[in-house]
Each structure stands twice: as structure tokens, then as C-alpha cells.
Specification:
Elements lengths: L1 H19 L4 H105 L8 H12 L1 E3 L7 E6 L6 E6 L5 H11 L3 H5 L1
Antiparallel strand pairs: 1-2, 2-3
Helix pairs in contact: 1-2
């Protein structure tokens, strides 16, 4: 469009030259000036339209650039969120695996406890069924030992001392032996010597 108008302007210039060299110069000159003015107005209009188109193009370019910028920012944010979600997923998966292993260990411990419980229950059942085993009480054993040995022991003395009173003879005989000064054999023989052998003769 602009090229066509320029061509008109050139043709107009040629016409002006022709008019200037002819006799009807004033009339033709006015026509030419009017035509030139019309062409100039058209050029001004074209320039305005071109400027408007350029401004619109620049606005479109700016809008596109802004959109691309926002798109890139959104892409980066989305990528960051995606990486965070992947990390959380991995951590959750590791925790899940760890929990499964812990549960397996706990189940194994529980099974072992059940086996021990079953064994204890079996032993208790066998103990309840077996009535032939008689365990004498400590009091009974102490009374039996006293009746056989006729010795009252002093349990409150020093652990290294053997103290008591023997009532097997006509007179009560005190016992006071330091175990650090005598051998176990001597102590054993001495205590046995205190016991009466009448029950052996009577048998």
C-alpha cells in the first residue's frame, strides 16, 4: 500500500513539472497541489496506521514475553513441588520398609514368647500330674537335722565362724570353730565326732 502511494507521489511530481512548463500553469498547479495534499494526507493516515500496528505488535510481544515468564516460573515451581513429593514418597517408602521389618521382628518375638509360654504351661501341667515328688519344707529339714545332730546353730555369727551348742551329751557343749584356721576335713570330722552312735548299735 505504501509503495503504491509513493508511486502516486512520483507521478504527481511529474505532473507538476509538466504543468509548470505549460500555459495552463495556475489551474494545473492548483489541481496538482490539491492532489499532492490528498496524497500527503493519505501518507499521514498510513503512518498513523503503521504506528498503531507497531504499538499493537509491541504490546503483543510484551504480553507473550510476560506469559512466557509466568509459564517458566510456574514450571520451576511445579518441578520443585514434584521433587519434594518424590523425596517425601521415597522417605515414606523407606519408613514403610523399616516398619515392615520391625513388625516381622515383633511377630518373631511374639512367636518365641508363645513357644516359651506353651513350654511353661506344659511343665506346669506335668508338675500338676506328677504327685509322687515330695519336696520337704525347710522347717522340716531343720527339725530333722536338729533331732539327729542335737545342735542349735548360731546363724547370726560371722560367716567365717561356726558356732552353736551341742546337747547330745550329759552337758551342753559349745561349738566355736574359726573356719579360716581349720580345714574342711577337720571341721567335718569334728562335727561327726559329736554325733551319738547309739542308734547304730540299737539297729
Amino acid at each position: 500500500m505504501l509503495q503504491g502511494q509513493m508511486q502516486e507521489y512520483i507521478e504527481l511530481s511529474k505532473d507538476i513539472i509538466k504543468v509548470l512548463v505549460s500555459d495552463a500553469a495556475p489551474t494545473e498547479l492548483k489541481k496538482s497541489l490539491d492532489k499532492e495534499e490528498s496524497v500527503i494526507e493519505s501518507l499521514v493516515d498510513v503512518e498513523k496506521e503503521a504506528s498503531q500496528i507497531i504499538r499493537e505488535l509491541m504490546s503483543v510481544e510484551e504480553s507473550v514475553a510476560q506469559t512466557l515468564l509466568h509459564t517458566e516460573e510456574s514450571k520451576q515451581k511445579t518441578s520443585s513441588k514434584l521433587r519434594k513429593i518424590e523425596q517425601e514418597l521415597q522417605n515414606t517408602s523407606e519408613k514403610h520398609i523399616s516398619m515392615k521389618e520391625s513388625i516381622k521382628l515383633l511377630q518373631k518375638d511374639l512367636e518365641n514368647l508363645k513357644l516359651v509360654e506353651d513350654e511353661i504351661a506344659e511343665l506346669e501341667r506335668e508338675a500338676d500330674e506328677d504327685t509322687t515328688i515330695v519336696i520337704p519344707s525347710a522347717v522340716y529339714l531343720a527339725q530333722l537335722f536338729h533331732k539327729v545332730t542335737k545342735i542349735d546353730w548360731d546363724y547370726d555369727c560371722d560367716p567365717t565362724l561356726i558356732r552353736g551348742i551341742h546337747y547330745g551329751g550329759d552337758i551342753a557343749q559349745p561349738i566355736n570353730i574359726d573356719s579360716t584356721q581349720h580345714s574342711k576335713t577337720f571341721i567335718c570330722d569334728y562335727l561327726w565326732s559329736l554325733l551319738s552312735t547309739e542308734w547304730q548299735q540299737s539297729s
